[in-house]
Write a structure and sequence with these properties.
Elements: H1 3-17, H2 21-39, H3 47-58, H4 63-75, E1 81-89, E2 93-101, H5 104-117, E3 121-122, E4 132-141, H6 148-158, E5 162-166, E6 169-175, H7 179-188, E7 195-202, H8 210-224, E8 229-234, H9 240-246
Antiparallel strand pairs: 1-2, 1-3, 2-8, 4-6, 4-7, 5-6
């Protein structure tokens, strides 16, 4: 199993266990707000909003919450802006942080403070472009799939580059160019993805001793706990030993 799907599985379990659902909902609401501002409140005419709604449904966000977020964003467009940060945690682990914020100075200050406090380094945008590739990732619990063989053939035909199954969850990886086609094929099969989107996948990973790796993961969690942070990507190798330590 790839490091990415292993890390995704661990985060999925932790999210279910430590009641971070409200944080997940908050991130999706922000994505809905930005989507409506950019492309309008009609999901049929706004692909980004349609994807945000699909992801909301994938984590069982109540329909009323979704509609309320769309209506609020349509009536009173937010001034959220997308900002990214690139840097290194201790021991040279690369971090790419995506944020949605209504106060750029606050977000910069918070991100810089965590890097400084934890012995990391905030770099310049573009400095990690050689480490991360943007790829489409679609996550589907196996219980939502009827005929597994047919499903796999369909998504491969649509352009899926890789399919992994772990803990009864399918992790489908696509190129950035083929992501839309594969997601549409899954939708046409009447299967609801748990999550779908473009993510930053490391093309090279860094392996650390367990204690050092756990320190880096705690720093990542500190970034993720910031209200302005949407996603944190890293190139830490999640070895079997690290995975066991996180159980």
């Amino acid at each position: 199993m790839s490091g990415h799907s292993k890390w995704s599985t661990i985060k999925r379990k932790k999210g279910a266990l430590d009641a971070k659902r409200s944080k997940i909902f908050s991130r999706i609401v922000k994505e809905i707000e930005v989507s409506v501002r950019e492309g309008g409140a009609d999901p049929e005419a706004n692909p980004r909003l349609r994807l945000a709604i699909e992801n909301a449904k994938g984590v069982n966000m109540p329909k009323d919450n979704i509609e309320r977020a769309i209506n609020k964003a349509d009536r009173d467009p937010s001034n959220l802006q997308e900002v990214t940060f690139e840097g290194y945690a201790p021991n040279g682990v690369a971090l790419f942080i995506e944020c949605l914020t209504d106060n750029h100075l606050r977000t910069v200050g918070n991100i810089r403070a965590i890097f400084n406090k934890r012995g990391g380094n905030l770099g310049t945008n573009g400095s990690l472009s050689f480490i991360f590739d943007r790829k489409g990732i679609i996550t589907v619990p196996s219980e939502r799939i009827g005929d597994a063989e047919s499903f796999e053939l369909e998504v491969i035909d649509a352009g899926a580059g890789d399919i992994e199954i772990n803990d009864e969850v399918y992790y489908i990886t696509t190129s950035m160019e083929d992501f839309g086609k594969v997601r549409k094929r899954v939708e046409e099969m009447g299967i609801e993805a748990e999550n779908a989107g473009l993510q930053r996948i490391p093309n090279d990973t860094k392996q650390l001793e367990v204690n050092d790796a756990l320190k880096v993961l705690r720093i990542i969690e500190e970034f993720e706990d910031d209200d302005d942070v949407q996603n944190v990507y890293h190139n830490l190798e999640i070895t079997d030993e690290v995975a066991r330590a996180l159980e």
